[in-house]
From TrEMBL, chain A:
GO terms for biological process: aerobic respiration; respiratory electron transport chain. Residues 1-102 form the 2Fe-2S ferredoxin-type domain. Belongs to the succinate dehydrogenase/fumarate reductase iron-sulfur protein family. Keywords: Iron, Iron-sulfur, Metal-binding. This is Succinate dehydrogenase. InterPro entries: 2Fe-2S_ferredoxin-like_sf, 2Fe-2S_ferredoxin-type, 2Fe2S_fd_BS, 4Fe4S_Fe-S-bd, 4Fe4S_Fe_S_CS, Beta-grasp_dom_sf, Helical_ferredxn, SDH/FRD_Iron-Sulfur. It comes from Streptomyces violaceusniger. Coiled coil: none annotated. It comes from the Bacteria. PROSITE patterns: 2FE2S_FER_1, 2FE2S_FER_2, 4FE4S_FER_1, 4FE4S_FER_2. The lineage of its organism: Bacteria, Bacillati, Actinomycetota, Actinomycetes, Kitasatosporales. Residues 149-178 form the 4Fe-4S ferredoxin-type domain. Its cofactor is [3Fe-4S] cluster; [2Fe-2S] cluster. NCBIfam families: PRK07570.1 (NF005746). GO terms for molecular function: 2 iron, 2 sulfur cluster binding; electron transfer activity; metal ion binding.
From TrEMBL, chain B:
The active site is at R344. The gene is sdhA. The keyword Membrane applies. One of its GO terms (biological process) is anaerobic respiration. GO terms for cellular component: plasma membrane. This is succinate dehydrogenase. Keywords: Cell membrane, Electron transport, FAD, Flavoprotein, Membrane, Oxidoreductase, Transport. NCBIfam families: PRK07573.1, sdhA_Bsu. Its cofactor is FAD. It is a peripheral membrane protein.
Automatic annotation (TrEMBL), chain C:
The chain crosses the membrane at residues 14-33, 63-86, 107-128, 156-173, 194-217. InterPro entries: Cytochrome_b-558, SQR/QFR_C/D. Coiled coil: none annotated. SUPFAM superfamilies: Fumarate reductase respiratory complex transmembrane subunits. It comes from the Bacteria. Keywords: Membrane, Transmembrane, Transmembrane helix. CDD domains: SQR_TypeB_2_TM. The lineage of its organism: Bacteria, Bacillati, Actinomycetota, Actinomycetes, Kitasatosporales. This is Succinate dehydrogenase. The keyword Transmembrane helix applies. GO terms for cellular component: membrane. Signal peptide: none annotated. It comes from Streptomyces violaceusniger.
Length: 248, 652, 223
């Protein structure tokens, strides 16, 4: 396959960036999208040009590092992570636009690499169960109904990639935040901190400069792990409940 | 059987011993050690700083737990978030001797299985401790909210895994590593928010600072700004994972690397059993030269999938057209009692053998079938989907083949490294104050790791072992002297690091870092991969110094050091692979026996199984660094087996 | 607490949801009343009169009407202020657009902001036209709403403004009702089809109902 790539190049956070065009030949259908970029980078290095910087690590769709907006879609046309997108999703002769996640809470570091530390701070605000090592009761002491365990798992699958924020026209982090709230709040182990968790995480989410939710559903469409839009609804309910229960 | 003891590219030094494990009954040793260990007064703990490198299961768990105890933790990861450490990719599960199934499991059985599975090259004391702690890990993870799979009654579900006959593996669909890691990450996040952990993400350790023979700090590079900084502490913990990426193609993350452990090795930490690398039998075969990494399909698939190849050589018919009696379910045939659930090393080698016979399937004949047709017929498609859905999806995504209809194609690939920094029972390396936990050490798996035991070991080390043993070191070694960046040892370590990076940038040759990585990787895969021979290893040992020389002549790293520069990161990691590969091959050459993941063709039984040479090699090989390309010193740690007596492993 | 509530994006959304539902409730009542126009001037004007004596004898003349007006005004203001503040925030959260863009959201979702502005302007015009009569086209008569309505819809621009605004209202209600349900935590997988159906039904009934009045005038059914 022969492709034309238009890639966002930006030297550092303080320098304005722009799209640059590259022609790439000899791309195989079986390559992953990132392997295609590897080929481009090898060519650029040999030519003495700077390779394109992009985040990636496990390349098996679980670490959440990869983060490209491909032709306007976070993670590209398939419902998966960029690293699991294969070139068979494209045609010979295609022009492909590659851009970084765009959100003011995710400033660009270089080229296609952005700073997603805001997500870590949202988790630090309450996305945990306080259970210091050694304090745990016997695992079977508290049975968890299978439906609740499955519900928790479905939300715990979030990989923190940030595609939801990138896809949201408001740069909102509701899907990410709600996934963790719902994972922990449905479990009996998470119930003592149920109210403070949702209040603190939402407050931190706002403090990071993420936008608000207008329920466009773009986040859930982009989510490679299929976290449902109703995750947000459930968090709204938790938040409303918490505001009634907790007096601050 | 030839003996290679006359081999002279290394020297033999004093034997080394683990003097921390107490004597006495094996099941009392951990209690005894914990009681012997001195404690640090809770009020004094915040005065102690501990550096933890890595945020995977071991590092994340250790950082959180040490901070909970009151220590000041300074932690590092090269990823943009501690949540992305490669433990996240572990699929299958975590072992624990809970015996919830009432199927005859016990701590002793897990201990026995692990020693046997490791082909009698692990320390009994360590393995027994691991088995004891396994039950606490499950409790801890459940309390943290890890959503393990559950039965309809609300209790935890388990499944069986390779190499054992009980069902002791706890799992969270095919994402157990992810869920366990998020549990540790969340506990760590709580400590970061509380100000007890100072977290440095996108920061890579590039050297160890040793002052007066003790580990006192690290040199690290901020990957965003390129700034080189020093950090100081009372103890340094390496939880930086294994070195599988020396093979270029492996199931490791692209940026997983050996720099932290290799730099520590260069500063005096012995490296043990580097040739013990694990080949995982069920990976997706490579599809071409562009391949950048390999993807594992969880071993749990072998519970229900049946592995086969055509009986005839060069049979290129589609699998559905090959009738039952022309298929060879070779694992079930050769190992009737364990069948498809034989340990990883055995399953991998058997796959290599049938492919070498010309019966492999798929492009290049480098693959075997893993067939779910029987499972779907027996359990129904829905049950199969429930159990393995995400793995099947992943397979289809990568290969564009639907495994519900066509059998999967799998082939072995490098997955885990049992070798690592030598540690004693306290997980302390030969450099006082330097600890290694998780895959970074060599301690618990011997020559072969059983499935679902890596997660168990990482969490055991991080949550329970290290936080107990490190107290003893800190209590016995109060540091009166403050060390800072002006200390000669720190200045020297920084200078060496800066020189190395400057040299990489200055060569301005004509070959990319990846091209060297691929070259060294292909070399070790060919000669130090699934099967090893003296001849091949000698070839590799001749070739590696040449590649190293060429590297420093032809490497091209664009850009500058004081910026975000992924090429520079990569090239710097390859510098260490080029030395580590040599030690791996040397270790493999010196160990003229087959055991576990290390298969020497010269040492096999008449029916082609691995033949250990216990009288000669019942030891862990701990290597001392001398200089790049110079002969290292071998220190042998003799292994004694009081409870599990070495036998020829038999899974037939 | 109230301050925290209002400062949170979620709090503001909840304010929008609740005020939106109040307005939808009002629209339904308003539509029912308006339908009386098809039963002739007597019945319609009597309904107009009843609005002023609503609640009597407990309530004084026009008190009921004024309570409704105050509640509605508060709802409109809270709804608009929240919307304005959230929109400002949303735009700030996503300052740089993608070079490669494609429309994907439904039309109703994408037009919530401008639709809201159109509706706001319409409400002002509608009050000036038919409540105060300030901008009324032909001799506004207090106490004769039937004639006033007929006058308004006898001009082309009256019809255009009204019909465009009602279409905008329909779309706004369609996304707004479903959205409010999610914001208030009422949505889930099993209930979603019902909620979407209700949203669509509300949108269609309200739009068609209101538009039937100018159509009635134009076709001479109402004259």
């Amino acid at each position: 396959m022969k492709l034309t790539l238009r890639v966002w190049r930006q030297k550092n956070p303080d320098t304005p960036g722009a799209m640059a065009t590259y022609e790439l030949d000899g791309v195989s259908q079986d390559m992953s999208f990132l392997e295609m970029l590897d080929v481009l980078n090898e060519e650029l290095i040999v030519k003495g040009e700077e390779p394109v910087a992009f985040d990636h690590d496990c390349r098996e769709g679980i670490c959440g590092a990869c983060s490209l907006v491909i032709n306007g879609d976070a993670h590209g046309p398939e419902r998966t992570t960029t690293c699991q997108l294969h070139m068979r999703s494209f045609q010979d002769g295609d022009t492909i636009d590659i851009e970084p996640w765009r959100a003011s809470a995710f400033p660009v570091i270089k080229d296609l690499v952005v700073d997603r530390s805001a997500f870590d701070r949202v988790i630090q605000a309450g996305g945990y169960i306080t259970a210091p090592t050694g304090s745990a009761p016997e695992a079977h002491a508290t049975p968890v109904p299978k439906a609740d365990a499955d519900y928790a798992f479905e939300h715990a699958e979030c990989i923190g990639c940030g595609a939801c924020v990138a896809a949201c026209p408001n740069g909102a982090a509701m899907l990410f935040t709600s996934a963790k709230v719902n994972h922990l709040n449905v479990l009996p182990q998470g119930s003592p901190e149920r109210e403070t968790r949702v209040l603190d995480m939402v407050a931190q989410m706002d403090a990071e400069g993420f936008g608000g939710c207008t329920l466009t559903g773009e986040c859930a469409t982009a989510c490679p792990k299929g976290i449902p839009l109703f995750s947000i609804t459930a968090m709204n309910k938790e938040w409303l409940r918490a505001t009634r229960k907790v007096k601050r | 059987m030839t003996s290679y003891s006359e081999y002279t590219e290394y020297t033999v030094g004093e034997p080394i011993q683990d003097d921390r494990a107490p004597s006495g009954p094996v099941n009392e040793r951990w209690d005894t050690r914990r009681f012997q260990a001195k404690l640090v007064n809770p009020a004094n703990r915040r005065k102690h700083t501990i550096i933890v490198v890595g945020t995977g299961l071991a590092g994340g768990a250790a950082g959180a737990t040490l901070a909970e105890q009151g220590y000041h933790v300074v932690q590092f990861c090269y990823q943009d978030s501690p949540r992305r450490a490669h433990s996240i990719a572990a699929q299958g599960g975590i072992n624990a001797a809970k015996n919830y199934r009432n199927d005859g499991d016990s701590i002793h059985r897990l201990f026995y299985d692990t020693v046997k599975g490791g082909d009698f090259r692990a320390r009994e004391s360590n393995v027994h401790r691991l088995a004891q702690i396994s039950v606490e890990i499950i409790d801890q993870c459940v309390a943290q909210g890890v959503p393990f799979a559950r039965e309809y009654g609300g209790l935890l579900d388990t499944r069986s895994f390779g190499g054992v006959q009980v069902s002791r593996t706890f799992y969270a669909r095919g994402q157990t590593g992810q869920q366990l890691l998020l549990g540790a990450y969340q506990a760590l996040s709580r400590q970061i928010a509380a100000g007890n952990v100072e977290m440095h993400a996108r920061t890579e350790m590039l050297d160890l600072i040793v002052v007066d023979g003790r580990a006192r700090g690290i040199v690290a590079r901020d990957l965003v700004t390129g700034r080189i900084s020093t950090y100081f502490a009372d103890a340094v913990v390496l939880a930086s994972g294994g070195y599988g990426n020396v093979f270029y193609l492996s199931t490791n993350a692209m940026n997983s690397n050996a720099t932290a452990i290799w730099r520590a090795h260069r500063r005096g930490a012995y490296f043990a059993n580097p040739c013990f690398t694990q080949i995982h039998p069920t990976c997706i075969p490579r599809s071409g030269d562009h391949q950048s990494k390999l993807t594992l399909m969880s071993e749990s698939l072998r519970n229900d999938g049946r592995i086969w190849v055509p009986k005839a050589k060069g049979d290129t018919r589609p699998p559905a057209e090959i009738p039952e009696d022309e298929r060879d379910y070779y694992l079930e045939r050769i190992y009737p009692s364990f069948g498809n659930l034989v340990p990883r090393d055995i399953a991998s080698r058997a796959a290599k053998n049938v492919c070498d016979e010309g019966r492999g399937v798929g492009p290049g004949g480098q693959g075997v079938y893993l067939d779910f047709a029987d499972a779907i017929a027996r359990m129904g498609r829905k049950a199969v989907e429930e159990k393995y859905g995400n793995l099947f999806d992943m397979y289809e995504r990568i290969t564009a083949e639907n495994p519900y209809e066509v059998p999967m194609r799998i082939y072995p690939a490098i997955h885990y490294t049992m070798g690592g920094l030598w540690v004693d029972y306290d997980l302390q390396t030969t450099v006082p104050g330097l600890f290694a936990i998780g895959e970074a050490n060599f301690s618990d798996h011997g020559a072969n790791r059983l499935g679902a035991s890596a997660l168990m070991q990482g969490l055991a080390d991080g949550y329970f072992v290290l936080p107990s043993t490190i107290n003893d070191y800190l209590a016995r070694n109060p540091h009166k002297d403050e060390v800072d960046a002006a200390h000669p040892a720190a200045v020297e370590a920084v200078r060496e690091t800066e020189d190395r990076l400057a040299r990489l940038l200055a060569v301005d040759g004509d070959r990319t870092p990846d091209s060297f990585h691929r070259e060294i990787g292909e070399l070790v895969w060919e000669f130090c991969g699934m099967a090893r021979t003296e001849e091949g290893l000698r070839k590799a040992l001749d070739r590696i110094p040449q590649i190293r020389e060429e590297f420093w002549r032809r490497i091209k790293v664009p850009g500058i050091g004081e910026e975000f520069n992924q090429s520079l990161e990569k090239a710097n990691r390859i510098v260490d692979y080029l030395e580590l590969a040599e030690l791996m091959c040397l270790d493999a050459l010196h160990r003229a026996e087959s055991c576990g993941g290390h298969f020497r063709e010269e040492s096999q039984t008449p029916d082609g199984e691995a033949a250990r040479q216990d009288e000669e090699f019942s030891y862990a090989a701990a290597w001392e660094f001398t200089d790049t390309g110079a002969a290292p010193v071998l220190h042998k740690e003799q292994l004694t087996f009081e409870y599990v007596h070495p036998t020829q492993r038999s899974y037939a | 607490m109230a301050l925290n509530f209002w400062q949170s994006t979620l709090g503001k959304k909840i304010v929008m949801g609740v005020t939106g539902l109040i307005m939808i409730g009002y629209l339904c009542a308003h539509l029912l009343g308006n339908m009386k126009i098809f039963f002739g001037p007597g019945e319609f004007n009597a309904y107009g009169h009843w609005l002023r004596v609503m609640g009597a004898p407990v309530l004084h003349h026009e008190w009921g009407l004024w309570i409704a007006r105050v509640v509605l005004l508060a709802a409109v203001i809270l709804h608009a202020v929240s919307a304005y503040q959230l929109s400002r925030r949303d735009i700030k959260a996503r300052p740089q657009k993608y070079v490669h863009t494609k429309p994907r959201m439904s039309y109703a979702t994408r037009t919530m902001r401008w639709g809201g502005v159109i509706l706001g302007l319409f409400i002002v015009w509608h009050i000036l036209d038919l409540t105060t009569g300030t901008t009324h086209s032909g001799g506004f008569q207090e106490g004769h709403p039937y004639q006033n309505v007929v006058d308004t819809f006898s001009t082309w621009y009256g019809n255009v403004i009204y019909i465009v605004a009602m279409l905008a209202m329909g779309m706004h209600v369609r996304h707004g009702f479903w959205s409010a349900a999610q914001t208030l935590g009422a949505g889930n997988h099993t209930r979603d089809r019902a909620l979407k159906a209700i949203a669509n039904a509300l949108a269609i009934v309200l739009t068609a109902g209101f538009i039937s009045i100018p159509v009635g005038v134009m076709t001479g059914v109402v004259s």
